[in-house]
Write a structure and sequence with these properties.
Elements (H helix, E strand, L loop, with lengths): L2 H10 L36 E2 L4 H6 L11 E2 L5 E2 L7 H5 L18 H10 L13 H5 L28
Antiparallel strand pairs: 1-3, 2-3
């Protein structure tokens, strides 16, 4: 399954009568659910979260820039790509956040190493086999009726990697 098919599937879940995780009546242990969507590959970050008030964006991307009248405005400077419109209700309800402009010291330009750093929250000069969410999830109480802490769809467990994960 490719990324676009997956996003269409998730966006269409309410149409099929499948309640999305964020609208279930039952509350998780801490009253919240974290949905981490990691888009590996060729995601164009500057056209995902668009700096639509920056003239440089339009000057540097004369053919790729999303026209300002098509941008889904999040605030007075930044907006989402129009294909992300199914996410707007979450944004409007204050149930979604964006983290933008991340980096790490001394990057080596390796896409694979960067993914390993993000998945493990390691320093750029160390290698960890456990994902950054694993230590947190392992401290949560295991509920008999739902003995599952995370679901990973993809090639590797990423932030949920580690021994003893449920």
């Amino acid at each position: 399954m490719n990324r676009r098919d997956f996003l269409r599937l998730v966006a269409a879940a309410p149409v099929w009568g499948v309640p999305p995780v964020w609208s279930r009546q039952e509350k998780p242990v801490f009253g919240r659910t974290l949905l981490l969507l990691e888009l590996n590959g060729g995601n164009d970050g500057i056209n995902t979260l668009i700096p639509y008030r920056e003239s440089t964006y339009y000057r540097q991307r004369p053919k790729l820039a999303v026209p300002v009248d098509q941008v889904l405005q999040l605030n007075e400077r930044t907006g989402m790509h129009p294909a992300l419109e199914p996410l707007m209700p979450l944004w409007d309800a204050g149930e979604m956040a964006w983290i933008q402009g991340l980096g790490y010291p001394q990057p080596n330009r390796s896409h694979f190493r960067s993914i390993a750093i993000w998945d493990s929250a390691s320093a750029s000069d160390e290698v960890k086999s456990e994902g950054w969410l694993s230590p947190v999830v392992k401290t949560l109480p295991l509920r008999d009726e739902k003995p599952l802490d995370g679901i990973v769809i993809g090639r590797n467990s990423g932030p949920l990697a580690g021994e003893g994960m449920r």
